[in-house]
Protein: Protein FAR1-RELATED SEQUENCE
Organism: Heracleum sosnowskyi
Amino acid sequence: MITSDLTKIADNQGSICGDKSRLSSEVSSDVSTGSTGSEGSVTSYMLSTGGGRYFKPTVDASRIPFRGQVFETLEKGCKFYTDYGALSGFDIRKTTEKTTEDKETVLLKYFVCNREGFNDVDLGSSNGSGSKEVQGRRTMSRRCGCKAKFVLKISSANTYYVFSFVEQHNHPLVSESGRHFLKANRKMTVGLRNIVFDSSKVNIGPNKSFCFAKELYGGYANVGATLCDFRNCDRDLKLYVGERDGQMMIDKFKVMQETCKSFYYAYEVDSTGHLTKLFWSDAVGRRNFEVYGDAVSFDATFDTNKYNMIFAPFTGVDKHEKCVTFAACLLSQESVTDYSWTFSHFVKAMGQNPVVIVTDQCAAMKVAIRDTFVAVNDLVASKHRLCMWHIMDKFPMKLGNRLCKETDFMKKMKTYIWSSNIEIDEFETGWGAIIKEFKLEEN
């Protein structure tokens, strides 16, 4: 009775890894089904003279390697043993190899169970004061010195044959319910990658896309990958896009221009090939400018954190008093050169200067507008005006919060500033009266 209870306790504590303290001398077997519906797999174990258990997977005879078996290439031999491990319930690992002096031909190659050998646990080194400092991260190891191996050796005919094959394992093999977690059975197929890619385009993360794949394939075990694989695929996808997004955008613009001749774009790169300037305007934006382009607002206050580039749209107002976009640009610097480049391409795309261009109080823009929107080639020079919203936003900073928030100064000022029907003389008179009332003549 005590012997059987101890055996049950040991079985419930995970891997036995060749434990010689076994008290049971019985021979039992665990029956499980193979990875495919037509193939069964029986994993049995037996006790050695020292009391350790040794597990021997039993699969279809055509799937079991044998000494002297010949493979045309090393890759085919590796795939055969990998598939055998996937059916049996264990992963493989490539280890020692012997090559020629030029390192071009592999003469001998070892494939072992992923639980072969032991991991050395580094508990840290002494710092001189008697205590130990832990070096790096300590993780749980599943290696237990498994001796299962598969060795391929090159023949005189430049083929590879099985030089050595050890079938027994000293640990239980993975049952059918958990075999979809094996690396050999985990693969991000083209279909799964398309699910991750299409989900990322609509801001769906890998967790939800994995749940969607589970519903689509009829269960987690049928997906063929884990949530970690979905997350890694999403990470690699973002990394790929992050390194090539500039070229991808230019390629996209080229296709759009080939599809629609009215699409206009221009770009510049620096000496290292990084995108520094980009301007574009589609057919709708250019058509809107023809109708509503008498007054254009250029706002360069949008900053993209990831690339540290300025996003500046050219916008206007339609007959419904709704904002419309004429064009947009990305700039790496807020300099006269960058603004002049952008404004020149805006004129080239639209074919004319705007009647009025409204910007914030930027010295670089002031110079660029004066040099670009000029009366040349039968074009009418643009009038440069400053954005009233930016001016009003700076009142508290220039005059102080006490005057702007604790008095009716701002209320009276807005009466004259935001009135669209006021005459010039009336504005000047009202402005002067407010300045005098709050004694700001010397400000």
